[in-house]
Amino acid sequence: NKAADDASGLAIADKLRTQASSINQGISNGNSAVALLQIADKSMAEQSNILDTVKAKLIQANTATTSADGRESIRKDIDKLLNQLDNIAKQTNYNGTYLLQADATSGTSAASTAHVFQIGEKTSDTITMNTVRANTTGLGLTTLAGLAASGLTTTVAQTGQTEVDAAITTLNGYRGDIGSTQNQVESAIRNLTTQATNIKNAESTIRDVDYAAESANYNKLNIIAQAGSYAISQANSTQQNVLRLLQ
């Protein structure tokens, strides 16, 4: 349709098209946010496994059947495990956005920034992932991570278990927040998808030509044109017959 056909209708249709395009971008943002949140959660799931292993080793260290040499071996294992926990925090990112702590290149173990996702056509249509600090500093494990040689005694093993339990609680809190945020985003995506479909249908109703009516009108004009051609043909034929009679 041209603007001259229905100026007001075309303006409304264009506005609906812009709205649908904005909503579709919001849906795309939402899908990216879900991917980001899933990466964060899977990384923290691995960290949770590490903490479970550390807890088991501390229990092993806090028993009389474990020798001093055995505790030293356990200390080395725990040190490697907590180093890996920190590596996960440093490395986990989505397209360069760090998720479990601040940007690793900054040389800090500070918390990550809050990540805000625009899931909709308006600037106010946002959902926020809270800050995370899933490293040994943020989880309160610096003492356990910094044990010197022969530093793992039964007393340290006991206090270490308490620290690990607290770290697991903190990590579970982060994961719970991630899960809630993902549920919010997925709900918003479903709502936006419905909106986009309805808006596109409304646009089509306004913009699209009534093809049935146009087809009927075309057929009518075609019949009239054919009838006119037939009449002219008949007139020419009659004229030729008269001329032959006069010859």
TrEMBL record:
Limits of the Flagellin C-terminal domain: 163-246
GO cellular component terms listed in the entry, alphabetical order: bacterial-type flagellum; extracellular region
Keywords from the named record: Bacterial flagellum, Cell projection, Cilium, Flagellum, Secreted
Flagellin N-terminal domain boundaries: 1-103
Keyword Glycosyltransferase applies: no
Any one GO molecular function term: structural molecule activity
Subcellular location: Secreted; Bacterial flagellum
Gene3D superfamilies hit by this protein: f41 fragment of flagellin, N-terminal domain (1.20.1330.10)
InterPro entries: Flagellin, Flagellin_C, Flagellin_N
Record-stated family: Belongs to the bacterial flagellin family.
Function comment: Flagellin is the subunit protein which polymerizes to form the filaments of bacterial flagella.
Record protein name field: Flagellin
Gene source species: Aliarcobacter butzleri L355
Biological classification of the source: Bacteria, Pseudomonadati, Campylobacterota, Epsilonproteobacteria, Campylobacterales
